[in-house]
Design a protein that fits this description.
Helix content is about 25%, strand content about 25%. With about 475 residues, it is α/β, with parallel strands linked by helices. The protein has 2 domains: about 5-345, TIM Barrel, CATH 3.20.20.80; about 355-469, Jelly Rolls (Sandwich). Helix 7 crosses helix 8 and helix 12 (about 285-300) runs parallel beside helix 13 (about 335-345).
Length: about 475
């Protein structure tokens, strides 16, 4: 699907490749609970490890999946592969697999640089911006699959722009000449000056250092406490597009931000990191499709305020513990996120659309003594909500013609009445397997419906996920 003047928009997804189980021993990477209590986030190919024998083939399959979903590029978070820290050295391995892949031509790529990793005083002693980093970056940017905008300018995302002139964490007073050195190296390679995009939605720093635009790296610009519906996350993304500040906007588009594996005191104490006090619901297929569509529409109507071609930066392909499942295919979500992206670009949806609402969704109203169990392997999003008190109830609304209520196993004796739009629709009175269906109905009139479930005896009844379409 094209935009004005025939320009197609480019959809990119951020990659942070720290997802190998042995990295749980490295403080500050991933809390080990990701691999035990949050198995719902596991990629279809399993937890990626750049040391497993078929790592290159796994990256090939990821490239193919991204291309099938009409994703245009990956934005790799770059790390030095000669770092003394073994965990850091391994983070660029998927980028190397991508560069060497026979499927390389199916997907473009860009880089995300971080000030401290490319320009800090310690990094200068160990590698050197001019000696090591710039030649490596330019060589990558020369690749025919590197994303170019505004002619032949390499798209270069940058984290922690505010520290560029910091004496310890950045270039200090040399910042202007060092960025100019990068631009000169690009010119010598036949490229335009890098199109610099701040990735923390930091308009002030981007303007101060002469960047072209701003974007957003998911949690990087979020603060708050509590659990929110996806609609709040979509609104957060929209509110960051500020065209009045004179910079181009590369919209950040958040698929999921749920850092629950890091919501524990042990991880925080080990790494000295701030507690992640917020999380958002996973979107339904329809919510994600609508969010992408709105972003595409914004790009269409604000061509003068963005790059050419227009670009959106999706958070994220695979930031699996800090962000959520990402848009990469996982064992739980399958290709849902990519299916919606393809539908935005082509207008063609899957034959049967299934929306899913987790039991934790703020759109569900619980009344009574309901309790939430977390870290339950095999449950949708690794949790469920249950009660064994007669008279307790929950209600929610959905838009569609069918609905299924699914719950955990061992519900013997748990009975409930189900009303739809105020009319008795049946009962839930049978035990089911984990995540199985304990009530379903089809053939409803197209439109919005309200469901209310009330326990009618003292047996345990658990809600795991609501499926509808």
């Amino acid at each position: 699907m094209s935009m004005r003047d025939g320009q197609a928009f480019l959809a990119g997804a951020i990659r942070w490749d720290a997802w190998f189980p042995t990295n749980a021993s490295y403080a500050g990477f991933v809390d080990s609970s990701l691999y035990t209590a949050f198995s719902s986030r596991e990629p279809i190919d399993g937890w990626f490890d750049s040391e497993v024998p078929d790592h290159a083939e796994r990256v090939d399959r990821q490239i193919q999946a991204a291309a099938d979903g009409l994703l245009d590029f990956w934005a790799f978070v770059w790390y030095p592969d000669d770092d003394p820290h073994e965990g850091i050295r391994r983070l660029n391995n998927p980028l190397k697999d991508y560069m060497a892949s026979s499927k390389h031509d199916l997907l473009q790529f860009a880089l995300i640089l971080q000030t401290g990793w490319v320009s800090g005083a310690a990094q200068e002693e160990r590698r050197g911006w001019r000696r090591r980093n710039v030649p490596e970056f330019v060589e990558l940017m020369k690749d025919k699959q590197y994303v170019l905008v505004d002619g032949n300018r390499p798209l270069l995302f940058w984290m922690d722009t505010a520290f560029l002139d910091d004496a310890e964490r950045g270039f200090g007073s040399r910042w202007a000449e060092e960025l100019a050195y990068l631009a000169e190296a690009c010119a010598e390679a036949g490229l335009g000056a890098p199109y610099l995009v701040d990735m923390r939605n930091d308009y002030a720093s981007a303007a101060r250092f002469g960047f072209d635009g701003v974007s957003d790296y998911g949690p990087a610009s979020h603060s708050g406490e509590g659990h929110y519906a996806f609609g709040e996350l979509a609104r957060h993304d929209r509110n960051k597009r500020d065209i009045e500040k004179g910079l181009k906007v590369i919209p950040g588009v958040s698929a999921v931000i749920d850092p629950s594996p890091r919501h524990n005191e042990a991880w925080t104490a080990a790494v000295g990191a701030s507690y992640y006090g917020y999380s958002f619901e996973y979107p339904t297929y329809t919510e994600w499709f609508e969010h992408l569509s709105e972003m595409r529409g914004w790009l269409l109507h604000h061509a003068q305020h963005t790059s050419s071609p227009p670009v959106m930066a999706i958070y994220a392909w695979n930031e699996l513990d800090e962000g959520g499942p990402g848009i990469m295919p996982t064992k739980q979500e399958g290709t849902m996120f990519l299916d919606a992206l393809r539908a935005v670009k082509t207008g063609i949806h899957p034959e049967r659309i299934e929306n899913r609402i987790n039991d934790s969704n703020p759109g569900i109203t619980y009344e009574g003594n309901w309790q939430r169990e977390r870290g339950v392997a095999g449950s949708y999003n690794d949790d469920y909500t249950w009660s064994d008190t007669a008279g307790d109830s929950f209600s929610f609304s959905f838009h569609g013609t069918w609905v299924k209520l699914c719950g955990e196993r061992h519900m013997a004796g748990g009975k409930a009445s189900v009303a739809i739009d105020g009319t008795e629709a049946g009962t839930a009175d049978r035990a089911v397997e984990q995540n199985g269906v304990w009530f379903e109905t089809e053939g409803l009139a197209p439109g919005s419906h309200t469901v209310r479930v009330t326990l009618t005896d003292g047996g345990k009844l658990a809600l795991d996920v609501i499926r509808f379409g």
